[in-house]
Amino acid sequence: MTRRRFQPVNRRRPRSPGLSRRRLSAWLEQHRESALESLWRMLRQPLATLMTVAAVAIALALPTALVVVLDNLRTLGGDWQRSAAVSVFLAQDLDEAEGARLRERIAQRPEVATVALISRAEGLAEFRAYSGLGGALDQLNENPLPVVLELQLHPSALEPTHLTPFLATIEALPEVAFLREDAQWAQRFQAILGLLRAGVALLALLLGLGVLLVIGNTIRLEIENRRDEIHIMSLVGATNSFARRRFLYSGAWYGLLGGLLAWLLVTLMVWLLADQAASLANLYHRSFALQGLGVADVATLFAGSALLGILGSWIAVGRHLGLSDDI
Amino acid sequence: MIRFEHVNKRYPQRGEALKDLSLELAAGEMAFLTGHSGAGKSTLLKLIGLIERPSRGRILVDGRSLGDLPRRRIPYHRRGIGMIFQDHRLLNDRTVSENVALPLVVAGMARREVGRRVRAALDQVGLLALERAQPIALSAGEQQRVGIARAVVARPPIILADEPTGNLDPDLSSEIYALFERFHEVGVTLLIATHDQERVSRMAYRILRLHQGRLVADSGNW
Which of A46, A96, B83, B127 is buried most, with the most CB atoms less than 10 Å from its CB? Predict the structure, then answer.
């Protein structure tokens, strides 16, 4: 054998950390290897992995499902809001012409989007059609219904601070007999939705913390099981970041797979409930299709779950890896 | 290549493992480190690999003082040293070739190059046929040769071996020593700790003898 100088592998880092293309691709490959290695390791213990992933998924599925429910309620609420109207019943002795003049005046108010006039005859026809009292109406000599103005309000006018004085002004008009407002309960509904949304956010925060703990604990156990390996890696020249990287990828995988399963669970739930929701809506003469998660929601779920996984394992790695100290 | 200058190593419980130790190993030199258990052989090897830090004194490897090496540089220092252990320190959940590949993988070498080098290293120790085997299925001698392949796969200029034949019968030991001589022939600096006094005295290499942490005999440079 000839005598030759041995060259160690990558013994010294290049002095300038300039990312040449080759170095970048080597770096990417290292990351790819670490990511695949972590995934492969998890798949080799399918049961243990499934348990962690399922725990993460259930914790994520609950707030996600509530977001779906809230989104659907908001859609419904939006419909109601659009139909949020004030019916202004005019005095009995007012005829259509006087009603039309009042309509012009009211339409100029900034709170009002549109005003529709329902004549006495139209009101009667509608009442006949929907009340089922057509026969009784025939007994009457004259139309007992007043002229009605249907006001559609601008959404900004639905704030209680605007709405209440506005309604008071309308009601005080001498031509007006009484008001009936649908707006108020749409408004209450919005307030309830707001409260629920805050509640879901808090719940998500709490369950996110749970995910962090589940993944952190799983990674901690993994570190304990792989002490020898970490030690040997260190002896053959692994940097701390190399040792850390695999666990961070494990955490990311647990989070992402948990997010994926959570998404499947919620989608399944929506699918199971869609028919029921449709037939319920049908009872109210409404067409309503239960909406699943939107693309943005799914993206948020996946990104959030992966981030939670990385964060959880980061905490575990920081506390338990004990790198390069007492080797 | 390796230079100790008045090195002391004190452990909190066991007291002084090395006392005022000075020695120098030239590049390409092969030397044996002998002495009873507890004489400080392992400690000396650990200091070179920066598994331990000296309590006093200075150690230079390849002209660089290890005391000046920051902690984050330790992995790069270790990549220049192949370490062989009495208990092999193999990973039993990985194949032979995956074990041998570790030093290259942690150094970030491209996969194709890793495969080529691993096969070359396994070929050198005569285990190419077993590359897919699990270490646990191998005999003690084969396991030790896997450990040696792992130590040389990155072609480090220095190889440190701590009782590499401690668990092997004389025939298997001879095979291992023959491997070391071949690495010596191609210019690797080797320091081999062993208590097999009889064997090393039959081989014509430098012998450093430790007793209670002191260098008590040095057969000189060869």
Answer: B83
